[in-house]
Amino acid sequence: MEQNVEYMQRIMAENKKAVMPLLRYLPWLEQNERRSVSSNYGGQGIEGHSVPFPVYDGTLMQFVKEAAKSPLMERNYQYVYSRNHLRTHGDERKLIARATWRDWDILRGILSKYVLGGRVKAVLWNEAVTEGIFCLVLERMKEIIEYWDKPFQV
Questions:
Q1: 3-state DSSP call for residue 141?
Q2: What does pTM read for this prediction?
Q3: Does the pLDDT at position 54 exceed 80?
């Protein structure tokens, strides 16, 4: 029994180390939930020579950059979605809400879909903020870690 507790504490310490840098963005993510964090740049005279392109909030870009280099990224996030039959934001929310430490890889997969997938389809970054997915995943990861370890000091 003691070995299991020590093992869980070691795993949660590693998870805490990975999640901690991203938690500083949690207040911003909560504040911007249900709001668009991008705009289209049209610029003066660009209409005739180019297509307007999206410009994202600087804080969002910092979060994405930091999340992308964290050990939380799961390159095969598509398998998480197919294995768990995730199709809608509602499916994601239900799975996030009932996630336990055993579902850590599922939470990583959901986070990865929006961070890594956003590199190809950038609208995913804005979608993850407005739908509250980034916020829900980080909050759930924090709750799981705090259950096995002491509360965070962010």
A1: helix
A2: 0.87
A3: no
